[in-house]
Amino acid sequence: MADLRQGALQKAYQVYVGTDSAEVSRGKGDAWETDKVSSAAGLVAYNGKTLNAFTKYYWRVDVWDKEDVRSSSAVTSFETGMGTMRNWQGTWITDEHDMKTKPAPYFRKVFEAGKKIKSARAYIAVAGLYELSINGQKIGNHRLDPMYTRFDRRNLYVTYDVTAQLQSGKNAIGVLLGNGWYNHQSTAVWDFDKAPWRNRPTFCLDLRITYEDGSVETVQSDRSWKSSLSPVIFNSIYTAEHYDARLEQDGWNTVNFDDAKWKGVIIRSSPSNNIVSQSMQPVRNVLEIPATTFVKFNDTAYHYNLGRNISGVSKITVKGEAGTVIRLRHAERLYDNGRVDLSNIDQHYRPVGTEDPYQTDIFILSGKGEETFMPKFNYKGFQYVEVKASKPIKLAKQNLVGYFMHSDVEPIGNISTSNPVVNKIWSATNASYLSNLFGYPTDCPQREKNGWTGDAQIAIETGLYSFDGITIYEKWLADHRDEQQPNGVLPSIIPTNGWGYEWGNGPDWTSTIAVIPWNIYLFYGDSKILSDNYDNIKRYVDHIDEQYPTGLTTWGLGDWVPVKSKSPVELTSSAYYFADATILSKTAAILGKTADAEKYEKLAQKIKNAVNAKYLNPTTNLYGAGTQTELSVPLYWGLVPADVKSQVAANLAKRVEFDKFHLDVGLLGTKAILNALGQNGYTDVAYKVASQEDFPSWGWWIVNGATTLYENWNIKSKYDISLNHIMFGEIGAWLYKGIGGIFPDETQPGFKNVLLKPHFVPNLQNYESSHTGPYGKITSSWRRKGKGVSYTAVVPANSTATIYFPVTAGQQVYLSNKVVSTTDFAVDTKLYKVEAGTYTFEIK
Ligand code: BGC
Hints:
Blueprint: E1 12-18, H1 21-25, E2 32-33, E3 37-38, E4 56-64, E5 70-72, E6 76-79, E7 93-94, E8 105-113, E9 117-127, E10 129-134, E11 137-138, E12 155-161, E13 169-178, E14 202-211, E15 216-220, E16 226-229, E17 232-235, E18 241-244, E19 266-267, E20 275-277, E21 283-290, E22 293-298, E23 301-318, E24 325-331, E25 333-334, E26 340-341, E27 360-364, E28 371-373, E29 380-389, E30 400-407, E31 413-417, H2 420-435, H3 453-466, H4 470-483, H5 507-510, H6 512-524, H7 528-547, H8 569-590, H9 594-615, E32 616-617, E33 622-623, H10 628-637, H11 645-658, H12 667-678, H13 683-690, H14 698-703, H15 730-740, E34 742-744, E35 753-756, E36 766-773, E37 776-785, E38 788-795, E39 800-806, E40 813-815, E41 818-819, E42 823-826, E43 829-834, E44 837-843
Parallel strand pairs: 12-20, 18-27, 35-39
Antiparallel strand pairs: 1-2, 1-3, 1-4, 4-5, 4-6, 7-19, 8-13, 8-16, 9-12, 9-14, 10-11, 10-13, 14-15, 17-18, 21-30, 22-23, 23-28, 23-29, 23-30, 24-27, 24-29, 25-26, 31-36, 32-33, 34-35, 36-37, 37-38, 38-44, 39-43, 40-41, 40-44, 42-43
Helix pairs in contact: 2-3, 2-15, 3-6, 3-15, 4-6, 6-7, 6-8, 7-8, 8-9, 8-10, 10-11, 10-12, 12-13, 12-15
This protein binds beta-D-glucopyranose.
Beta-D-glucopyranose binds next to helix 3.
InterPro entries: 6-hairpin_glycosidase_sf, 6hp_glycosidase-like_sf, Alpha_rhamnosid, Bac_rhamnosid6H, Bac_rhamnosid_C, Bac_rhamnosid_N, Galactose-bd-like_sf, Ig-like_fold
Domain Alpha-L-rhamnosidase C-terminal: 742-813
Catalytic activity: Hydrolysis of terminal non-reducing alpha-L-rhamnose residues in alpha-L-rhamnosides
């Protein structure tokens, strides 16, 4: 509801879904038509007739506002896809080459569209990567499609409206296939070259044409297609792409091209028995980034600096002699002499020979004037590109640009403060989050590109506050279900070829199975992701219980890459195990599974008791040796008994002071520390830590020039020092939670009720945060005014908020110059409930 009035709400709704747009606009829906339902629900699941495949449905929603006035949405549409696998006409095909063959294959097919075309759709399923073209035009702007799945269990197909690209009469379809993760030819420690699914890429395509007379014709992949090798002479998702422009075949994907020399195709079995629609935001070239500086070493060597670290590709435009070999090396760092340094990102690479240099594209010129190259089937993590040519070439600053690529999720959050370093930390966090979103969350875009579970569970809130990422996680949870062993075990990287079932996959990492659905539920208010994954969470928790009946588990990696102090793995892993059991119990209650709700609540209690019996010292109120991680993890995950919580929190604050208000945590402690302080009355301490600018801190990276988050607090570290990791990224979420205080309300998820717990931290003059949830844009912002603070909250239509004002002794909260009658919530906190609207309070 776009209704800015105070108290705006929805009294009732009515939904129409039908195949005739005119009928729907008249208030009739032949597929689904509800009554006028008295309800404020913002999310209602479709409950009409079974939807048919290949059908366009129109829909409209009417709502009645607080004055019972009805308004209607525009008539909008969606279209169904294949519906069931049985609707595929095509067959999986590939060329005659084997998986070791380096050049990427071209496929083409010419067909006749005999009648006047009304509409046309292309459905393409691929094991590997593809670029589809019709009559010489590339279809769509997706990159690296389809997204990576466990290819022998689930394959994704992509749908395009290609009506505009087709013509009556003859048409040509062209397909270029890349390897992606399906045919990993590079060799590294994770053995993706030995993946059980590995094979020469293959595809299945249906081009479904509907003619004006209502008849339907499907042009499909079959034996009639032809194939040839392309100028993409090598492509590896992991390392780079090599392109020989001398091998270009002009017009290969157009009707009149002479394909007499082309070969036939072979039929292949379907890579899996589960081909489903890719229902998610695609990867795109989201941002073009020009070079900020440019150096000419000599007439065969140049250097470009993009000014920021990104995930993506570079594009070079150059003129030179035929056969000139240009090498483009991509790196995050430079040696002192200005040459690129790849030593922080290539150490897990195990090359056989020298033909596949790391993060190095190779472009061989055709000599036909100005030529451009940008890889189609690879991406990298980099800021610098060093260009080396086998013969002299002339390059200028504008001859190379970078493209920041990632899953193109919509930005829905904003943070802006009076501290420029904090603002830069937030931007760097977003840059690393996006650099690690390629249809699944990754650890880093250069060294690994692995779907490390731990990094992703840490970053879930950071992602969801700032980006509308639900579709990526729905897909990734399906990847989890594909990978889960019958006994419940998950691998540490998802998807995987089999690596990671034996290392790194304890609850501190693979709790993704519980933590991610739970957060999606909190942010979007949709319980579907909970029911979709319920059995999987349960199997997972049961497995830990079977293996570790005492309630304590030592399974895990622990507080990865800490500053200095090490904390016991058993404590941190058991905390995650406790979180999983708790989420499972709450989920059971939400889904109406009462017996399970009780059972797992008891289990959670058992874990909690075991942890506290072993680690909590009742005399000192310290956990273990009292490191930052040991104190903040139990606080954050809710393990600390209520009666000693404030003492434990005070001990944490003391410890942080002892550590000179600097971090002494690794990956797990980073998730907990700022929240554990802030939620227990020490936001000022948390902010001190969060805004530090010397070692070790986020700000230390920033003042040293970082535009992304690093893998190591120590910039000079010899290992674990990728410069684009999201694993220390919880600060992104904390800037919304800790200072703006925007939280979803577990009892009314999806921000139906918003919790606002702002903190007016010293040293900030002003602060603004906003997050667009399912009901609209929520704002929490404040600025200092004399001795007081002016606080503005915006609560979207059809939602409410509970505001917890921080006050000091004698302070009052005013609205329109009148004292607001608040409730005392806790010491120094006044509670006030508001309906939708914009409010500016003065706290003085
Ligand atoms: C990755 C991490 C990951 C870790 C697991 C590293 O190589 O880059 O981010 O979580 O391994 O220990």
